[in-house]
Design a protein that fits this description.
By secondary structure, the chain is an alpha+beta fold. The chain folds into 2 domains: about 230 residues, no CATH class; about 100 residues, no CATH class. About 35% of the residues lie in helices and about 15% in strands. The strands form 3 sheets. Strands 1-11-12-13-10-9-2-3-4 form a 9-stranded mixed sheet, sandwiched between helices. Strands 5-6 form a two-stranded antiparallel sheet. A two-stranded antiparallel ribbon has the order 7-8. A hairpin with an 8-residue loop joins strand 2 and strand 3. The radius of gyration is 23 Å and the shape is globular. The two termini are about 35 Å apart. The structure holds zinc ion. The site of zinc ion (ZN) has 8 residues, from loops.
Amino acid sequence: MPYSRESAGKGGHSDFVRNPDVQHFLESCDYMKPPSDDEAKAMASSFISAPIGQPPRLPKFVVASDASKSDTPVNDKLPSTQLGFIKVSHVLISMDKYAELIDPRSRFVDPFKVADMHRNAQPITYVMPGSNICYKGASNVRDGFRQAVYDQLTANRRDGSNRMVLTETLFALNDNRIIIESCPSHTCDASIKDLIFTPHNPMQHCKACGTTVYATDALRLHEGISDFGDNMSAMTRMMNAVEHLLLASFILELLQANPATLNKIAFVMDGPLALFGEPAKWQPRIMKLIHKANVKLKQLGLEPLLIMGLQKTGAVMDHAHLLERFLPNGVLKVIDDTYRHTYITGSDKASEDFGYESYYGQDFLFKTERGRIFNFALPYPFESKGGFGGRKGFSQVKVKLDKYGSLIERACDLIRHFELDLYDNAIVPVALAHRHASISLVPGGKVLDLIAKAGLGKK
Ligand SMILES: [Zn+2]
């Protein structure tokens, strides 16, 4: 996920906006505008004081993830024939050892010590056919893409007998049974609901056209692929899906092996807790899994699992920067849908439930006691979005702070702990994960092995 987006500072930008035609066009648009002082004060008054743990309740370990994607020409003479790469890095930070990274004089992360950590670097990488490449002799680009998704997600990303296979994660999220509505071959589209995909039967053939159908087609990533277009948006969707499925695979494994472990780890994702586009239908399964983990933790007398999405850019952060100077330090706001549509999306019509299709987490704005502003998200604390009286009902229940138990306070405590030590102007775990989306701190898939080795699992 790109996290330091360049501002629109290219020459000519303001000339365009001054153009009378463009001005006229803008008059017929709704968009976020800087609030007047009175409006800003009204908005600021809806913030509450941010909860703070006495003492702060911090996890023992933080796992931060970041994903990036890139394209590379297969050779210099064929610049438009490209391979696509998706890289996801995970950084495991032991809170005990974290202090060693920090230069005590400046409180900045010591770059030499960080460089030391690069040595074992290796992210989890997924290689995909990019532009103008047909994979494994497929009759069209889209079928080749589907097969590549299957091959890449079915490859084991850990060493030895340990497994981290996202196809298995998909099955586990779906009670080991996947059904696909219609044949993914664009020339066919026959109903294939009678084919039941299981871990032992992840590949089947469409009875109408004979095309091989893969369990991973249920992610629908191939739907964005055409023979002549580029596959940029499919790759972006895949990157987003893979990052969140990897989170799910961590949770699934720890839940099975030693659920108490989950209480000692905080997961920090770069970006919103959401699955966008075609794979969005998997979002309810991730929500359900997190709920299941929390039920288990409760049975063990433990606090719920802390998963936090941090967003450095986007509409909520743009809004936060407009509002920042009106906010006292140490305040918090849950972004309810009324507030979002009134002040952030700038639309007249409220959505019945913002993010209904894609989001499994709720946005908060937090201005720390030291005056820095953060947009974080926490998973919705429910098994599903159903049962609350439709979308409107869910829109109301998702912003009830007491439903989040200790999570808001613990999220704020974690941000406070790391904001002291700036590194690339981001909180440390996210910055490290971002830096190592190209060079990971630990070999691909090793985070779980390290957690086990650290004795974290032992009660
Ligand atoms: Zn077919």
